[in-house]
Amino acid sequence: MRTQQSGGVPILRLGDVLITGLLNELDDKAALAFTDELTERIASDRASGVLIDISRLEMIDSFVARMLMEMTSMARLLGARVIVAGMRPAVAITLVELGLELDGVETALNAERGIAALGWHQGPRPPGGAGHDPTR
């Protein structure tokens, strides 16, 4: 697993999937730097999918919504599928009240479902936990 941090936002690589998240503290300059870094990583890592976890995002404005749409469009142009996971009800309500539609943005209830939708599945754990030797 490879980790790289851009503007305070970590981008993790898990196989051919990149995992990242958005926080409330992301200002416009940091958001643009994050978008640039994410698109660079999609290309350089040849990522087939991107999971953006927004479960820590307590509110959303038109700039962040537009950034998500643009990020998704850029990722698709680069051949990656993007899933936005963990949207809080208040964020969904705000989007509807603002009349903002995240056209083309796939969503998942939580990060686990989002990563599964991207084709990543955790294998079964060995009996007895890690490091257990059944021959002893």
Automatic annotation (TrEMBL):
It comes from the Bacteria. Residues 16-118 form the STAS domain. Coiled coil: none annotated. Gene3D superfamilies: STAS domain. CDD domains: STAS_RsbR_RsbS_like. InterPro entries: Bact_StressResp_Reg, STAS_dom, STAS_dom_sf. This is RsbT antagonist protein RsbS. It comes from Streptomyces hundungensis.
